[in-house]
């Protein structure tokens, strides 16, 4: 497996890696992952991207099936609508995340293998995200847990859904509206999760 390149939260953070580390709870964190930058196009390095499926890169903006960078711009413009919905002035969220000039869209794919002793391991320990927004796609395997009112609650797997997590960057200036909730990924001896 290739080593991860760059420093954490850097635009140079690309490549494959594995994490096997002790967590604060004494359980072991255990996962494989792949990080790559999607936007801006001029900072992408597709040389480290998966070769299979063969059409993997064709669905990204700027390629055959992925539309253009203007579709990314359109997505960022949705921050304006979200700003209004939160009772803020239009464009506030876009401004707070640095606008298009500072926008970095990274994709991280996590793989959690079946764990022969799940009581000894977590996929990922409790954390919040430093990003503005995190979108979590799942493969209908339970394991995502949220810390709510002093308890870990397992999130329901809803078909064809996307979970949106508001990250620390947004919470930092919306603290009066939202708190950044911790989440973690549990392990399973029955399922692997992507």
Automatic annotation (TrEMBL):
It comes from the Eukaryota. SUPFAM superfamilies: Clavaminate synthase-like (SSF51197). Keywords: Iron, Metal-binding, Vitamin C. One of its GO terms (molecular function) is metal ion binding. Gene3D superfamilies: B-lactam Antibiotic, Isopenicillin N Synthase, Chain (2.60.120.330). The keyword Metal-binding applies. The keyword Iron applies. Pfam families: 2OG-FeII_Oxy. Residues 103-194 form the Fe2OG dioxygenase domain. PANTHER family: OXOGLUTARATE/IRON-DEPENDENT DIOXYGENASE. This is Fe2OG dioxygenase domain-containing protein.
